[in-house]
Structure formats: C-alpha cells, structure tokens
Design a protein that fits this description.
The chain is of the alpha/beta class. The chain has eleven helices and twelve strands. The strands form two sheets. It has a six-stranded parallel β-sheet with strand order 2-1-3-4-5-11, with helices on both faces. A six-stranded mixed β-sheet has the order 7-6-8-9-10-12, sandwiched between helices. It starts with a helix and ends in a 6-residue tail after the last helix. It binds alpha-L-arabinofuranose. InterPro entries: Peripla_BP_I, SBP_2_dom.
Length: 308
C-alpha cells in the first residue's frame, strides 16, 4: 500500500525477513524441549531464518555460540542464559556489532541493561512463593517440625536462585519449617534421582517434604522414594515446578502433590516482540509470562488438555 509506505517509510510498513540466532540452555528437561520447539517453530513459521545452538548447560558453549552469531552477522539474537553472571563481555560485543539481544526465559545479572532489548520470561521468585504458600496452607494443621529437602536447579541459574529465594521468603515466616538438606540436581531426572537417594540414605524417614525446582527432578526423586520403600505424596509431600505432562501423570497416579506452572510456550509472543522492535517500537525491559498452579485432584481432568 503506497499511502502507508510514504507515510511510514520503508521500515515501518512490513516486517522484514530476519536471520535470528537462538542460543538455548540445553535439553535438560521436558520443559526445555517444549520451549525449544515453541521458539524454533515461531521463528520459522513467521518466515524468518533460524540459526540454533544448544549449549548443553555450559556457559562457555553459549559464549562461543553468540560470538559465532555475531561473526555470521545475524539480525537478532535470542538468548536463554544458562547462568546469570559472566556475560557482560559477549553482550557488549553484540551491542558493538549493533545486533539486538532478546533474553528469553532466564535473565542475566548485568548492570548495564542497554545490553539487551527486553527480557521475556516467568517470574521465578513468584513461583517459589507459590510453592511456599501452597505448603504453608497444606500443612496448616501440622505442629511441626516439618523437615524439607530441596532439589535445586542448575547452580547459578536464575530459576534456581529465584525459586529458592521465593520459597524461603514464605516458609521462613513459620518456625516449624526447616530445610534440612539442599543440593543441586541440575534440573534433570537422573540427577534428581541420584541426589534424592543420598538424601534418603542420610535422613530417610525424617523427610516430610520434597521441594524440587522442576518436575523432572521431582519425577526422578519419586523413583528414588519408591525404591527406598516409602510412598511418594503420602510419606513425603512432593512439590514440583513447570507443570509438564510428566507431573500431571505422576499426580494422576497419586504420586505427586502439586506443580507450579512455568509456561514454556512463549515462542509466538517472543517473535511478536522481535518484530515490534524491528518495526521501531520501544519495548518494556521486562515482560512476564502468565501462569498458574495445579494440584493432584485436578490432574486427571486436565491431563488431556496439557500442551507440554
Ligand atoms: O529456566 C526454566 C527452567 O529450566 C525450567 O523450570 C526447568 O525445567 C528448565 O530446565
């Protein structure tokens, strides 16, 4: 349409085809594979070209991938940082090359916020608070002590730091709750199982609650609990985060109590934001993904409707 072209100029009229480099954390969980698919599909469905790199949960791989995107002169970089710190230099290199960076899912702990355009992701502290609030209500009648073991996510990652912080903020308001063991399970089933086995070996029957920073670790831990001879969700209350299908299946089987939703399907929203940026719109620095919480009694009914 010539009218709008003359009014808006070339840039504002049509969204151009972009080359987008996407540096993803890894493939550590059900959540992550759903997130990767959602972002990859949204980029290619919108007609853009995708360059994808899986960091296998290693920061050095991400730094290399971003440098390679810069050398290849991509138009934009989508970046889900494995850990929060240590990315200043490479982000500055992207800025110097005039390549806008969009943080997806996880944020960085970097003072200069001009190093990225916007951060689209969940509020992990709030997820931790939701887990804490659920537990406080669920065990309102318990006198205590309530002994909690915690399976943390990847050390130094935003979701591990924030989910711990939010959860502790709530449970520390009552003396009866105590985290007796806390260790990383790296967000994987295998590590979740292994660490839970160690927790059971040292504290066995004393464990009342498991708070796992994601469902995959909770599912691994459920196996460990069964093998140890205890009944998951009865002898040990089990809280996970993500709301992946595997958690709904475990809840429908009566083996897990609750999962706090962390929605990975924000690919289309992310691509909209990238296009808006290239159309000259200015974006908020922080954009949140909306999410909920699901308990065991809702699992059977909702399982068929879950998309990830
Ligand atoms: O950053 C989001 C977290 O990363 C998810 O909760 C977890 O499953 C994933 O590995």
């Amino acid at each position: 349409d010539t009218d709008s072209e003359s009014e808006e100029g070339e840039q504002g009229s049509e969204s151009e085809q972009l080359v987008i480099g996407f540096s993803q954390v890894g493939a550590e969980s059900e959540w992550r594979t759903a997130n990767t698919k959602s972002i990859q599909n949204a980029i290619t469905d919108a007609g853009h070209e995708l360059k994808f790199s899986d960091a296998q949960q290693k920061q050095e791989n991400q730094i290399k991938a971003i440098r390679s995107f810069i050398t290849q002169k991509v138009d934009a970089i989508v970046f889900s940082p494995v850990v929060e710190t240590g990315f200043e230099t490479v982000l500055q290199e992207a800025k110097d090359a005039d390549i806008p960076v969009f943080l997806a899912d996880r944020s960085v702990d970097v003072e200069d916020d001009s190093l990225w355009v916007t951060f689209l992701g969940s509020d992990f502290v709030e997820e931790g608070r939701k887990a804490g609030n659920w537990l406080v209500e669920e065990l309102a009648e318990e006198e205590g002590p309530v002994n909690i073991v915690e399976l943390q996510g990847t050390v130094g990652s935003a979701p591990a730091i924030d989910r711990k912080e939010g959860f502790e903020e709530i449970i520390n308001q009552e003396d009866k709750f105590e985290i007796i063991k806390s260790q990383t399970g790296d967000f994987t089933r295998a590590k979740g199982k292994e660490v839970m086995e160690a927790f059971l070996k040292s504290d066995g029957e004393n464990i009342d609650v498991l708070y796992a920073h994601n469902d995959d670790m909770a599912i691994g831990a459920i196996q460990a609990i069964e093998e140890f001879g205890l009944i998951p969700a009865e002898d040990i209350t089990i809280i996970g985060v993500d709301a992946v299908k595997g958690a709904f299946e475990a809840m429908a089987d009566g083996k897990m109590n609750v999962t706090i939703e962390c929605n990975p399907l924000f690919g289309p929203q992310l691509v909209d934001l990238i296009e808006q940026h290239f159309e000259g719109e200015s974006l908020d620095k922080r954009i949140a993904v909306e999410e909920s919480m699901y308990t065991m009694d809702q699992a059977e009914e909702l399982l068929p409707t879950r998309e990830y």
